[in-house]
Amino acid sequence: MTEPSSEIMLVFPRDLLRFLYWLVLKPITFENYVRRFGVSPATSLITLWRRGKEQPALRQLVYLGLFHMIVMPWLLIGAGLLILSPFGLTVNGLGVAFGKVVGVAVGVLAGVTFGVMGAAVAGVLGGVTFGVTGAVMVGLVVGVAFGVWGVVANGAMSRGVLSFAVGVGGVVAYGVLSRVVSGLAVSVTYGVISGILVGGSFIVGYFRLWLYVIELPLTWLIAWRARRSQTPFALWRFMPVVWHEATWLPLWGLDRYLLTLAQSDREAGAKAIAFVAQSFRQQWAARNALAELSRAG
């Protein structure tokens, strides 16, 4: 299969940030990019490395995945400790180091089984989770894991890693919660708390509520501002639907913005409506805007 041109190839280390951006906010773009080489995002790292002899871009993906699996967790843990240290956080250095090793092991397991995307996500999340423990961190990390893994265009990979992510979440939840409930020795309490923790994290992460609480107000603000602007298209690049491909819930106000844009600049409005019509779960906004334009004649 023909490789993409060099202008759009992910290269290590130049595209470390782009790789992370695609991984978190552009999973559909990432999947389409990988499939252009005749493989899927779930292809194991070993297979990607072997096929890299004929397709060097695949080895670049392995390098990028390994960096985010091995190095990125240390950076995140260090940054987190620097931020929290003024608040009196005490850290067991040996425990963090041990947790980081466990995180890398989780990443390796995911990489062998679920490919470069699994390696990067599991390495980062596993390293942070096991390196710095706490109930809030557990909920956040498990939620983000479900969010990143849970949305690929056809959902194939999400089904493959769902049981793995639940397993990781259960192990982490057990490690934190066992300290809380061991004195009580009430297994029912553990079951309820861990169920709420993992279940709540799944809902927040899978449906990306951690981003939606920002995206929805931002959409409202842009739609409101566009009606009062002479150049509403200048606001287009800030719309969440442009920079985030996996918004599950409706971005209310997006249809109003599309209508305003089409009334101000017919050509730009047509392009924006066509873009939204092909987006993930926001097609309703394009339909509403077209309906309003049809009624207005």
Architecture overview:
With 297 residues, the chain is mainly alpha-helical. The chain starts with 15 loop residues before the first helix and ends with a helix. The protein has helices at 16-25, 27-35, 45-51, 56-70, 72-84, 93-131, 135-150, 156-181, 187-206, 209-226, 240-243, 254-264, 266-277, 283-296.
Give the integer mean of the pLDDT values: 72
- Which residues form runs of ≥5 with pLDDT under 50? 127-188
* Portion in helices: over 70%
* Rg calc: 22 Å
Annotation, overall tally of beta strands: 0
Which keywords apply here?
single chain; 297 residues; mainly alpha; 72% helix; 0% strand; globular
Itemize the secondary structure elements and their pairings.
Blueprint lengths: L15 H10 L1 H9 L9 H7 L4 H15 L1 H13 L8 H39 L3 H16 L5 H26 L5 H20 L2 H18 L13 H4 L10 H11 L1 H12 L5 H14 L1
Helix pairs in contact: 1-2, 3-4, 4-6, 5-6, 6-7, 6-8, 7-8, 7-9, 8-9, 10-12, 12-13, 12-14, 13-14
Quick overview:
By secondary structure, this protein is mainly α. The chain has helices spanning 16-25, 27-35, 45-51, 56-70, 72-84, 93-131, 135-150, 156-181, 187-206, 209-226, 240-243, 254-264, 266-277, 283-296.
